[in-house]
# Entry
Amino acid sequence: MKNLLLFLLFLYGISFSQNLTISGYLEDNETGESLIGANILIEEINVGGSTNNYGFFSLTIPQGNYTIVCSYIGYENLKTTINLKTNTSKKFKLKPSSFKIDEVKLSSKKEDYNIQSSELGKVELEVKKLEKLPVLMGEKDILKTIQLLPGVQSGSEGSSGFYVRGGGPDQNLILLDEGTIYNASHLFGFFSVFNSDAINDINLIKGSMPANYGGRLSSVLDINMKDGNKKRFSGTGGIGLISSKLTLEGPIKKDTSSFIISGRRTYIDILTKPYLDTTDYAGNGYYFYDLTAKFNYKFSDKDQIFLSGYFGKDVFSFKSPDWGLNMKIPWGNSTGSIRWNHVFSNKLFMNNSLIFSNYKFEFSASQDVQGASLYESRLYSGIRDWNLKQDFNYYLNPRHTLKFGINNTYHVFSPSNFDASLDTIDISTNDIRYYAHEGAIYINDEFNFNEKVLINGGIRLSSFTHYGPFDRYVKDNSGNLSALSTDTTLSYNSWEPIKSYYGFEPRISTRILINELSSIKMGFNQNYQYIHLTSLSASSLPTDVWIPSSSIIKPLIGRQYSIGYYRNFRENKYEMALEGYYKKMLNLIEYKENYIPGTSIGTDNVDNNLVSGNGKSYGLELFLSKNIGNLSGWLGYTWSKTTRKFNDLNNGTAFYSKYDRTHDISFVANYQISKRLNFSTVFVFATGNTLTLPESAFLIDGDLIIEWGERNSYRMDPYHRLDIAVTLDGKEKRNFKSSWSFSIYNVYNRQNPYFIYFDVNDDNFGLTAKQVSLFPIIPSISWNFKF
Amino acid sequence: MKNIFLFISILFLTCTKEVTFDIPVNTNNIVVNGFIEKGENAKILLTKSVNPFNFNGNINDILNDFVNDAKVIIEDKEANQTDTIFSTSPSNTDTWFYNYKGNNIIGEEGNSYYLKVIINNDTITSKTTIPKSSFIENTECVYRQTDSTYCYFLATYTDPDTIGNCISIFTKTLNSYYPQDPLDLNFDNDNNSAPFFKRVLDNNGNYTDEYTNGLTFTFPINNGAPEWWEDWGNQENWNENEVDSYTGPTIGFWNVNENQKVVIKVSYMDITSWNFWASMVNNNSPGIFGTPSNIQSNINGATGVWYGTSSVYDTIITSP
# Structure
């Protein structure tokens, strides 16, 4: 042990004792916005780094005179000299570039970042880039753009739900300013909850997840909101076919404190009302809104606080005067976070966060008869988190950048609850809840072993405990689970531990530089996931229920092995990434075969009706991109296979996952025709979704009952679609800029399968398969402005 | 969820087309549809499974799928009685047909009945129990606000004070002014009275007393979804949007005339056989809002259901 410690000290301390540290922040010269992931290079010794999520950087180098180059996409390079005699703090302000060809670059990173970094399966998206792409109904959508990347698939037509490398939608950790978003879509999945006008930075990690992230198996989508303009008051907004939005930002105290507030609301309900009022669906209505806000205050160069919040809601309402029936279905997320940054020294940066997340779905219905209430009911489910975390970045020396931290999340799950009054009877499940604590500590080191080898390794230790109060309904001897036949109820008191789990999560990725233009990377990560999403539907819906690991349901465990070859061409104008992966997933859950939803809600446990199994996914992903120039874009291709095996499903034989896609191709091109005119196009092709088909039928009391065949053993038709968009920027007048976006979704009017159902023929009573397609060719127009 | 999908369909201009698949189908599996009613002999229909895509609802074809060469044994172990029965001419039950009928054993509340079907050297088994029943205290009509020729019912009911009551609710219309039995499936020479009871629309008529154990309450009873045999022979005039009281804004209502009778039937059964009927709701869930699932059969060695039941009836005379 003593020798090991000496060796570690040697590795960490060798030859850097005489070095000095230059640290500080990079920010936008005009707005004071932090520049996340910007690059700092010391030219003479070719040592560099990048800023963290708060724009902070730190470099430790020998004493001397140096030329420092700061660069960030869309900004003019800043070149300055420094005579480094003592540890120094600096703030570098970069000027946004006027129109330049590199404004249409995919990523803000430096040109050969993909070759040099140790990141495997990580993509950073620039919001500016997304704004030019064709969109459905004029709604810019971060999640739909992410679906265009290799290894990321959409759930169904028009859906914002995404599936990464064979994982389910619950296996993606979606963070907005560190707050977890549990349901990231509006309108049953058609639009994402993120308003791009308020977004600063988007990172998707689908491969080797660093140790500072945890709690999910497949991916992290880390989205950072803008801080708000620290220099002057400004705004952006847009008017589209189904919604409008407005973002305002400005300084509260110049260069010290700023705010941003951004809102969006649909007017589908208002637009469709005149038509619906003439149909049988009068009284139906739907709308969504979201509001994001952020405030920051800089106490000194060492201390800064951020307050962030997101509130979004969807509301569907239905009325039937003939039945005296009223239904309302609201659901939505809210998150809030308070964060405090503190710079202890030039090398040590700390962030403390207190984060609140809440997701709630509700279904309320009432029926009146001749003016008197017959019944009222309310079904609701949700999840609420309080998360306290502390993260450190320690820039030990040029070879080692350490990240370490600790966090604890208090989860409160409300999987299914029901209150009703029927006639004179009051019925209630009495607010069934699961309480749990999820904790983790981690350490991660980016170790520059030598010029060719860069290792990013870490360990995350996690724990999860399900606490009382809780009632566990136990099976009776006949195997029936219903409360109608419950044998025993085990009751647990408040804070009584019911079941604990612990996870050891090693993460490592390595880059081996072959030459300046190519590298090989390898990675392995093991992840634990303690929360699960149960779904009876073929797509991700707000009715899906979050539940914790328990004495019945074990944590999900994922092991992913990945390898990649990266090559740039023509002075980094063209990039190529070829990645392969193999992922094993243990303890996946599904509802039992033939489960009858809605029964025994209040007197049975949700997890009593679930079964566990395993899954695997493997595939190859090719990504070719052109990042610089008037013409930019990418081509992504994924070949993959994803299967599941549950002893209690499909007669115990393996079956294709509903997320399995053999081939998935996306092509994105963006052409800057002139300073004011931009053209873009998107083409996608994917193997059809899996399908279960009838293999037999029988008559019972005159009803045709279907016997379904092997699970997911058939395919729908392939999915393909072409979209185009033209963006025309207006002339700037008195600091007011505007643009028109014209886009056509599904240019050649392909009838892509949304789902298939089986209808009984009128003439012979046999079944006919019918395919429903959602979106025909849809032109749209939107007007956006900025001042 | 159905309402939500309809709304999305309107909003996003959905379109539908027929598609075909090349599927190997399994037919000729034995299907049991049997019950023993309190105070009556057991009635069992044995049939074969069919090709779902090439099925013909013609009554002669349906009769051709009946299986008549089995030996059926019913045993009441409490009473130490056994019925060994062979097929008989097809006759009606309240809800469909039977081709095997018991001759000794009479169903009693609280007793369990064991079924054994022997066919082609295969043995099919099942077990069921007849539960206790209650009754409907009062039923009244609620007429549609805009048209009093349409109504649904409000029933007042007291649940027995023992948890575990599982019921299925059916209705049947007598002396309707339009034909509900054009094929005269019940052979009574009356084309206007419905031949069978059908399940009410809401939850396919399946309820338990999980939340209402021992309580008295009033609840709505609506008309069932249209059955194919109600307007057979008139398919070319079927309208997807509105077929009398079947679909559209009047779905769930009865289109009633003076002195028309509607019979309400409440059948009590044990939970394993009730699960069969309850699982029918999700058997063919269309769209993204549901995943289709197989039926929960309580038959070993085949599919279908064997249920002990005690039923109560209530007749309402409508007066628009």
User: Anything to note?
Assistant: The CA atoms of residues 749 and 777 of chain A lie 5 Å apart. Chain A touches chain B through 94 residues (CB under 8 Å). DSSP finds five helices and 50 strands in chain A. The domain at 12-98 of chain A is CATH 2.60.40.1120 (Immunoglobulin-like).
